[in-house]
Amino acid sequence: MGRLPKRQRVAAYAVIIRGDRILLSRLAPRISRTPLWTLPGGGLDHGEDPREAVIREIHEETGLDAVVSEQARVYSLHNPKATHGERLADYHALRIVYDGWVPKDAPEPRVVEVDGSTVEAAWLPLADVLNASIPVTALVREALADHRPFERQRLAAYAVIRREQSLLLTRISALGHHAGSWTLPGGGVDHGEKPARALVREVAEECGLECVPGEVLDVHDVHFTGTAPSGRHEDFHGVHLIFAATVADGAVPRVVEVDGTTDEVAWVPIADIEAGRLEVLDVVRHALTR
Hints:
Shape: elongated
Keywords: Hydrolase
CATH topology of the largest domain: Nucleoside Triphosphate Pyrophosphohydrolase
CATH class of the largest domain: Alpha Beta
Largest sheet: 7 strands, mixed
Organism: Nocardioides daedukensis
Protein name: ADP-ribose pyrophosphatase YjhB (NUDIX family)
Number of helices: 6
Domain Nudix hydrolase: 7-146, 152-290
Cofactor: Mg(2+)
């Protein structure tokens, strides 16, 4: 037998994790006779940018509009005697793997492409993939072994605003971490923004009130891994500056920001917070001790 024809393929894929599930695509029977799941993605067209290619392939295979990271990992597979169609070939595959994410309110995945290389898309339990209960390609195992959630640190300013025996709180919408929980009014400090000014801006957006910042009572922080409002899998560290603040007597709070991470604002009796009658974030309980 002479030398086998050389075949090289460059493809782009994405690791998309949401909570305890991962988005995978099932290969068509013509590619794998037994059920086998892989990362959403596929081959680059000639001249196509890899990031554009993986976004296109994700939509074709899952029906979802994804965002992918700027950086990627590259995996090489060389099989000198691979089956290529009905013939043997000296096959070399380069797989560019990005981290990806889709909106938290994205619809259920579905295959859009007709007669493509995949026939099903689904969010599958990550634990079942890791313990081999679900059959996956070697690429999935390699990519997950190297995957780390995106590290994000966020500086925020929050206000402790009291009225008699009540505390002004805001409720987190479905777009935020810990949806449905109550927290102090406030939010992220923009790059170059003075924290006190950020506090005034955030209280106006979330509560419709003009506040006057006072002294910094304390610094609180929180660290956890989860799904960000964007849908990205993040290792999140929040650093919170807790300010004393005041608003005008008789001021009535209302949510001003549309489609933000706050869906309700209210004066909440401190006794209800201390008795655990509503779900609040740790920063609220921490602030009450200062």
